[in-house]
Amino acid sequence: MPIYVYGVVAADVTVPAEDRGLGPVSTVTDGRLTAVCSAVPGDPLGRRRELRAHAEVLSDLCRLHPVVPFVFGTVLPDEERVRDEVLRRRSSHLAAELQRLADVVQMSVRLVPDEQRLLADVMASSSGLRSLEAEVRRLPPAAAQGQQLRLGEAVAGGYRDWVSRLADAAAGRLAEHARDVRLEPLTSPEGDRQAAFLVTRTGLSEFLRAGGEVAEGMQGRMVVRITGPLPPFSFLAVEDGAGEPVAARR
Amino acid sequence: MTVATQSSSGYLQRPNPSGLADVIDTILDKGLVIDAYIRVSLVGIELLTIDARIVIASVDTYLRYAEAVNRLDLTDTETKGLPELLEGMTKGGAKNKTSGAIEGAKDKFEEMFGGGDSDDDSKDQDGDDERAGAKPRPRRRRPPARKE
């Protein structure tokens, strides 16, 4: 049966054998390393419960133990290949990553702007925009198109600027409680922002407290959604084994 | 997804069982990759690729913004200047506590799979309905999102 691999932990970690949706969790161990696995009937994968299983198994483990997470959908033909291709071939890289990321987890933060609220702020902050808007109102609709476009462009620019600056301030504030940060590219026209923070296990409550303060400071302009802990998905080092058909993808 | 405490105060949404929507990109895109050929085919990944990725700066967008500000009733809105706001945030805005419901940010995942049920019992749902509820969407690669 093909073997699904969630990730790798140190060999001395006790991995609970629960079934979270991809089949009962099992392990394959070689030397210092243990691959956390499930035997799966085969592809295709990607249903909701399977995605959840991947996230949950890894999330549960990373609360207490260092974990190198694998990308969703990693399946090898059998246990032997897990031992060879994963644990033996990459043992030094995996062991180094487990050590480097021993005391940290990843927290995902999404900032969701309230457009109406921010547009009001943008308008209130600029007399130029307000007079342009008044002009648009005054003109008959047929004559106002050019002005309306200009207004929209200016407002869009102002909105992006506000969202960026609020998001940067929020990220900066949260980064004080993190070892590292990855800002994700803009994900939607409305300006949702997402960032991943590398946080020590012992600093989690501080991080969440800071998240609460940021959320309060926003006063509804942006909703702050924090998800985690996850293993450090976004902070893995690229494997440097030249010639190996492998890479940690960013 | 995972932290036991669920906060319901202010505008912070703590980790909760619906967090999958926010980590979906992470678990699909990040993490160690073993040889690509071993990766199995992934059902429904096209369904998971969230559509609104392109940051559009177009005439349509501008007109939409123009109309949006047109509808605003500015006399009625209490606003704060940006510097003031940033100040409040970095100083810890707890003293400015505003009451208000947490905005129900949509769980896109839920939306896409059409299942409005609680995530806790996801094990009850079996295979096919998960696919059946999903609307087919054209598979598309994520365009390189534009940074500002």
Task: Give a description of the structure.
The complex is a heterodimer of chains A (250) and B (148). Chain A has 250 residues and is α+β, with helices and mostly antiparallel strands. Helices cover 41% and strands 23% of the residues of chain A. Chain A folds into 2 domains: 3-101; 106-230, Alpha-Beta Plaits (2-Layer Sandwich), CATH 3.30.70. In chain A, helix 5 (127-138) runs antiparallel to helix 6. The longest helix of chain A has 31 residues, at 145-175. Mean pLDDT of chain A is 88; it is low at 242-250. Chain B is built from 6 helices and 2 strands. Chain B has helices at 20-29, 45-48, 59-71, 82-90, 108-113, 127-132, and strands spanning 12-13, 32-33. With 148 residues, chain B is mostly helical. At the A-B interface, strand 1, helix 1, strand 4, strand 5 and helix 2 of A face strand 1, helix 1, strand 2, helix 3 and helix 4 of B. Strand 10 (247-248) of chain A pairs antiparallel with strand 2 of chain B.
| Share of residues in helices of chain A | 40-55%
Identify the quaternary structure here: heterodimer
Mean pLDDT of chain B: 51
The radius of gyration over CA of chain B amounts to 20 Å
Mean pLDDT of chain A: 88
Instruction: Give the termini distance of chain B in whole angstroms.
Output: 30 Å
Give helix and strand order of chain B, one letter per element, not per position: EHEHHHHH
- Name the structural class of chain A: alpha+beta
**Counting H and I runs of at least 4 residues, what is the number of helices of chain A?**
7
Question: What is the general shape of chain A?
Answer: elongated
Quantity of strands of chain A, as a count: 10
